[in-house]
């Protein structure tokens, strides 16, 4: 998973390095193991960091009127070539140097020929910015601006709005945007196939975002309401796992009338355990981001809602924490269908052997994590909320594109 951003100033007096830096901080929900940015003035200057964007230190001499940035799990990005610099969200096949050469010389043909599932941003050595989503549209890409001065490409609207930009619209699947000193133009390179990533909507995107032409907060509230339609539980309080699952809990509470409350407060950095790079952080990360509030759960029958379940380790620790603070019952609801297969497109869903829902029954999982019961959103319920133009390969083992 990755967040990518490109910023282009129409007047070369601008320095876009801080726009890129803060835009990347707004995208680090998409991955934070490795980050970096490249700016163009007379030539390319790069800063890379093994860690989150917020840990980057910008040198005083980093200056450029256009640039791109990356935050995610691939140590190879951003890539500077003889023809320009490239950042990618997703998986592409082929020699990067040859792809960059093609994007510089024959961009439309090259975009049509690239194999993979991806969104990309390419800044050429002569100062042209290209953004593109492959025709399946599994990875998002948005465009916005800062008045008439800057154009901004970003994986999510958060990369645009946190730097004061105004969101314009989503780049369509199979569509390319070309930005130079004089204009912004769009070309439909390939026919749209529309297979949006269900996990991006359920988990990956920020709750204040607009992705795949949907408001994330509103979408997750509806998923919570759908959970209430499918599985009503007699309980005293509904709580959600911050931050992604809070709207699910709000929706469930609205539909059932069971009071919603804030079950956790943060301690330390906002760790996203699905994205964590080592097993220790996956376990201890739940304590860093989820410290339960005793008065909310003590002596109560608790409904705990989370966005997904991968290995079960995070939820096991969370349920244990609630029990230790006196929760009378803990019923777990999951705002996605079961994850039973890996993602070949770059989402951090591991192999089937590591996925708890692919290997144990519901009763066994409830016992392992210490819950009184567990329930996952049905695939039919997911389609009811999101429609069927989705990639749900990690839930069904049926993938829209072979790469």
TrEMBL record:
Ranges for domain Rhodanese: 298-349
Any one GO BP annotation for this protein: purine nucleobase biosynthetic process
Main enzyme class: transferase
Binding, [4Fe-4S] cluster: 197, 343, 391, 394
Catalytic activity as recorded in UniProt: 5-phospho-beta-D-ribosylamine + L-glutamate + diphosphate = 5-phospho-alpha-D-ribose 1-diphosphate + L-glutamine + H2O
Alphabetic keyword roster: Glutamine amidotransferase, Glycosyltransferase, Iron, Iron-sulfur, Magnesium, Metal-binding, Purine biosynthesis, Transferase
Ranges of residues in domain Glutamine amidotransferase type-2: 2-182
Binding site for Mg(2+): 244, 306-307
Listed CDD domains: PRTases_typeI
Domain of life, source organism: Archaea
Pathway where it operates: Purine metabolism; IMP biosynthesis via de novo pathway; N(1)-(5-phospho-D-ribosyl)glycinamide from 5-phospho-alpha-D-ribose 1-diphosphate: step 1/2
Co-factor binding comment: Binds 1 [4Fe-4S] cluster per subunit. Binds 1 Mg(2+) ion per subunit.
Record keyword rRNA processing present: no
Annotated EC: 2.4.2.14
Cofactor: [4Fe-4S] cluster; Mg(2+)
Single GO MF annotation: metal ion binding
Family: In the C-terminal section; belongs to the purine/pyrimidine phosphoribosyltransferase family.
The name this protein goes by in its record: Amidophosphoribosyltransferase
Organism: Sulfurisphaera javensis
């Amino acid at each position: 998973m990755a967040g990518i951003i490109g910023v282009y100033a129409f007047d070369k007096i601008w320095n876009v390095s801080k726009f890129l830096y803060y835009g990347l901080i707004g995208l680090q929900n998409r991955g934070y193991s490795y980050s970096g940015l490249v700016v163009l003035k007379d030539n390319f200057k790069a800063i890379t960091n093994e860690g989150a964007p917020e840990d980057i230190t910008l040198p005083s001499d980093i200056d450029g009127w256009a640039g791109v940035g990356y935050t995610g799990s691939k140590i190879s990005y951003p890539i500077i070539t003889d023809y320009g610099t490239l950042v990618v969200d997703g998986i592409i096949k082929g020699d990067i140097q040859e792809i960059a050469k093609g994007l510089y010389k024959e961009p439309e043909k090259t975009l049509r020929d690239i194999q993979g599932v991806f969104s990309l941003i390419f800044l050429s050595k002569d100062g042209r910015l290209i953004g593109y989503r492959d025709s399946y549209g599994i990875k998002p890409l948005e465009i916005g601006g800062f008045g008439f001065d800057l154009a901004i490409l970003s994986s999510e609207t958060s990369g645009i709005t946190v730097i004061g930009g105004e969101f314009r619209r989503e780049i369509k699947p199979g569509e390319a945007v070309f930005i130079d000193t004089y204009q912004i133009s769009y070309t439909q390179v390939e026919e749209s196939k529309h297979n949006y990533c269900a996990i991006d909507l359920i988990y990956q995107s920020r709750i204040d975002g607009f992705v795949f032409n949907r408001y994330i907060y509103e979408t997750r509230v509806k998923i919570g309401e759908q959970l209430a339609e499918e599985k009503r539980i007699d309980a005293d309080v509904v709580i959600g796992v911050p931050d992604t699952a809070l709207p699910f809990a709000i929706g469930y509470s609205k539909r059932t009338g069971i009071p919603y409350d804030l079950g956790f407060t943060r301690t330390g950095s906002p760790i996203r355990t699905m994205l964590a790079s080592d097993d220790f952080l996956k376990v201890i990360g739940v304590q860093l981001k989820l410290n339960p509030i005793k008065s909310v759960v003590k002596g109560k029958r608790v409904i705990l809602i989370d966005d997904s379940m991968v290995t079960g380790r995070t939820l096991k620790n969370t349920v244990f924490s609630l029990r230790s603070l006196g929760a009378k019952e803990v019923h777990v609801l999951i705002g996605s269908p079961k994850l039973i297969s890996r993602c070949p497109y770059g989402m951090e869903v591991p192999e089937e052997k590591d996925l708890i829902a692919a290997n144990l029954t519901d009763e066994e999982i409830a016992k392992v994590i210490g819950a009184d019961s567990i329930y996952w959103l049905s695939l039919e319920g997911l389609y009811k909320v999101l429609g069927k133009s989705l990639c749900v390969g990690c839930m069904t083992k049926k993938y829209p594109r072979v790469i």
